[in-house]
């Protein structure tokens, strides 16, 4: 029998509290955990028997026969926004913020923006969704406009997808309150603050929320899960995932992968590794984290990327840290795997501290870093590692 684990923390906030017990048989779609403060409901994505519930995971032995076309539907609700809450929808683009809270604000003179940027390299599942399910996306935007009371809706997508842009413009031709905006092909085009700057020509201060200027931004897969919750009463139990890198079938999109599926399962489904290979990255190449073959797919995991083996580096490394790329911890991990010593770290000069967290003042507009590099050199760095910088 196969065991899988479903993490209790797939969102911003504390891990959820499990409400099932060892030995209990669970059907796909059944509620298994509820928020413990800020969070979102967690439902079973497989049918099976509960093995263990701890502070971090629900472990299940899954039934040999699985019917992924069915699920336990969420209860009827008084409103669409309650359906989104009960279904456990969170930001599927990686942020994991509970979606019902984002949609709860009233922007009666504002704009709802569907984020279709998919700005990290190698990822392709959002573009596939938009190409194949445009009508669903438009319906989702309309639902979100109604819930937020936004009079205008915008679908933001990179202009390089010319054919898709034309399809989108045709899809909204009879929707006078919805338009298509073409984003530049730069990183991080999917950052909420950058999208607001591009679409609305409003520069958000670091730490300032889009809702403060009359905007709500949701990733297009998040909108897909919103539509499913409202129309199909489906909980958030499946995730679209791109598998790429050092695998035999590159840039493969898997649609509706049951949450809890092991990364190794998807790698096997694309023919396995291309050798030599290195670490498995969960998410995108810029902001993803290191995983293993047994890492489970979660609500926020959009990619399983297999990297090259780490090059070896004997020179001393200085870290140039920015909000838009890998964290200091992630870059230190990479440096250690390269066999290198980190001797210094400096923040990009765009970084400013807001409520104890360093944020980028202007995402996507990188400054010159000569001063920062010189500071690293003075501290003994022979080479520089940075997560993201155009300089």
TrEMBL record:
Residues 3-59 form the RnfC Barrel sandwich hybrid domain. Residues 84-227 form the NADH-ubiquinone oxidoreductase 51kDa subunit FMN-binding domain. Pfam families: Complex1_51K, RnfC_N. Keywords: Electron transport, Repeat, Transport. InterPro entries: Ion_transpt_RnfC/RsxC (IPR010208), Nuo51_FMN-bd (IPR011538), PR_assoc_PrdC (IPR031001), RnfC_N (IPR026902). The keyword Transport applies. PANTHER family: ION-TRANSLOCATING OXIDOREDUCTASE COMPLEX SUBUNIT C. This is Proline reductase-associated electron transfer protein PrdC. It comes from Enterococcus alishanensis. The gene is prdC.
């Amino acid at each position: 029998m196969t065991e899988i684990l479903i993490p209790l923390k797939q969102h911003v906030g504390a891990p959820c509290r499990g409400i099932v017990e060892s030995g209990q048989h669970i059907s796909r779609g059944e509620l298994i955990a509820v928020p413990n403060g800020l969070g979102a409901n967690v439902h079973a994505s497989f049918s099976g028997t509960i093995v263990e519930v701890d502070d971090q995971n629900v472990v299940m032995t899954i039934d040999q026969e699985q019917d992924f076309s069915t699920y336990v539907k969420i209860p009827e609700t008084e409103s669409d926004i309650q359906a989104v809450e009960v279904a456990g929808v969170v930001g599927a683009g990686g942020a994991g913020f509970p979606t019902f809270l984002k949609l709860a604000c009233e922007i009666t003179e504002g704009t709802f923006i569907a984020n279709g940027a998919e700005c990290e390299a190698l990822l392709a599942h959002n573009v596939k969704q938009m190409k194949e399910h445009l009508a669903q996306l438009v319906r989702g935007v309309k639902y979100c406009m109604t819930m937020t009371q936004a009079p205008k809706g915008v679908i933001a997508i990179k202009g390089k997808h010319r054919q898709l842009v034309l399809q989108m413009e045709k899809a909204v031709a009879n929707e006078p309150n919805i338009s298509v905006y073409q984003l530049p092909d730069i990183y991080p085009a999917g950052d909420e603050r950058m999208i607001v700057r591009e679409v609305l020509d409003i520069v958000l201060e670091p730490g300032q929320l889009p809702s403060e200027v009359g905007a709500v931004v949701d990733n297009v897969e998040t909108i897909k899960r919103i539509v499913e919750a409202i129309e199909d009463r489906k909980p958030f139990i499946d995730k679209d995932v791109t598998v790429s890198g050092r695998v035999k079938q590159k840039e493969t999109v898997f649609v509706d992968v049951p949450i809890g599926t092991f990364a190794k399962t998807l790698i096997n489904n694309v023919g396995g590794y291309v050798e030599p290979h290195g670490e498995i990255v969960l998410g995108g190449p810029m902001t993803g984290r290191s995983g293993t073959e047994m890492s489970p797919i979660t609500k926020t995991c959009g990619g399983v990327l297999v990297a090259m083996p780490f090059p070896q580096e004997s020179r001393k490394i200085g870290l140039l840290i920015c909000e838009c790329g890998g964290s200091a911890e992630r870059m230190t991990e990479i440096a250690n795997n390269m066999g290198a010593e980190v001797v210094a770290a400096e923040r990009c000069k765009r970084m400013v501290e807001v409520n104890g967290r360093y944020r980028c003042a202007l995402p996507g507009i990188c400054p010159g870093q000569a001063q920062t590099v010189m500071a690293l050199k003075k501290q003994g760095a022979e080479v520089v590692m940075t997560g993201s910088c155009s300089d």
